[in-house]
Amino acid sequence: MQKDAQGLPMTVASAEAAAGYDRTLEGFLLYRADTSQRLKAALKLDPESPMLVLLKGTFAMLAANSAFAPAALEAAAKAGALAERGTARERAHAAALAAWAEGDMARALAAWTGIMAEHPHDLLALRLHHYNAFWRGRADMMLAAVTGVLPHWGADQPGYHNVLACQAFANEECGNYLVGESAGRAAVGINPADLWATHAVAHVMEMQGRRGEGIAWTSGLEQHWEGGNNLTHHLWWHRALFHYERGEHDQVLALYDRNFRNLESPVTQAMPDLAIDMQNAVSMLYRLRLQGVDGGARWTELADKSEARIGDCQQGFNLPHFMMALVVTGRFGAAERMLEAVRDYARSHNGGNAAIIGQYALPICEAVLKHGRGDFAGAVAAMRPALGGMHALGGSHAQQDVLEQFFLDAAMKAGLEEDARLLLERVAGRHPVPPERRAGYRKAAASILH
């Protein structure tokens, strides 16, 4: 028995293997591209440490690809067996991973909550709860978790900036922008390479319409992104969002090609269809499309990868993006197959994820296909019931925004002024920047809102 960097007992063969766990966890929390290599090195030191085996399963689930869920479930079972002679915390982590891999997020989130209640210094439990609550649209749970552990932390404790980063993003998503920005800046002050904290402050600036500041903030910290994983792509996507709002479409496309969808990048080549990267690319090209900017051949590789993922319903927020790529490229047969696969998943699976897919992802995907075929009124009718709850698919306010812009476009093209008004009033109530000052809403707001 050894202790990790936060002082928590763990079952591991040696101090060197425990240090390998700490190094791997640090890589995960800081979004380093070599995190998997760190884990491989640690597992060589001790292939039967429950926490190291758990990290292997965790990394499989973080790909948000259903093809990797069996490997995660296998790791959870192995870790659980190994932890029988270990600690209750290790057994609880194994149970949480198993629930996650099985799609039972209520059970998984409850398990991580229980771990944090007993062990508020458990950074893995905090970050996995934070991640999964986010992808279920539960910013309230994100905030409750970090608020619960913060009193047990101090600036002198290793990893404190990671807690501040979670505090920053949870508060931003809950609309507490002053607290969010302050916490994020404090975390970056401790560690400028904390990409999650950098990301949280970028979100605050996006929500407040501080576009010049957002470009300067991300540009000024880019020197610390060397060695980062796909979160660096998402940070470049955020910078592109600021340029998009300023109408600087050439800058957006340059960032697309050179940075957040650079197909030659080793990070992209390591996992070309990673969920967050696909979301970044599709949503930006679709925003540009709504502004009359043609993404050209860029759509083709996205459609190829989306078609290959038909039937993968592990993460609901992926599905409208996959559908957009298929429809824009005219792959209506593949789009129909995808719809049927989504319907089958919603019918044949139990648990919260299937219900969310059926209630929100399915109608949005139906709407995207109808829109692509020119049935704009049908698109509005399909998606209207999902508007109020589609946050349950996950994604930030900034990420969900493309779905709202899509609905508005359909309503305007269908001549459904009341639906367009509904959407404009909705975004006006959810976003501090008025629709008249936002690129995707300005034209409609000028003609409808008085």
Please give a handful of descriptors for the protein shown.
450 residues; single chain; mainly alpha
Overview of this structure, please?
The chain is mainly α. 69% of the residues lie in helices and 1% in strands. Strands 1-2 form a two-stranded antiparallel ribbon. A hairpin with a 5-residue loop joins strand 1 and strand 2 (9-10). The longest helix is centred in the last third of the chain and has 21 residues, at 352-372. The chain is globular, with a radius of gyration of 22 Å. The relative contact order is 0.07. The model has no long low-confidence stretch (mean pLDDT 97).
Task: List the topology elements.
Layout: E1 2-3, E2 9-10, H1 15-29, H2 35-45, H3 50-61, H4 69-82, H5 88-101, H6 105-118, H7 123-134, H8 139-149, H9 160-173, H10 177-190, H11 195-207, H12 211-221, H13 231-245, H14 249-260, H15 266-270, H16 275-290, H17 298-308, H18 318-328, H19 332-348, H20 352-372, H21 376-383, H22 397-414, H23 417-430, H24 442-448
Antiparallel strand pairs: 1-2
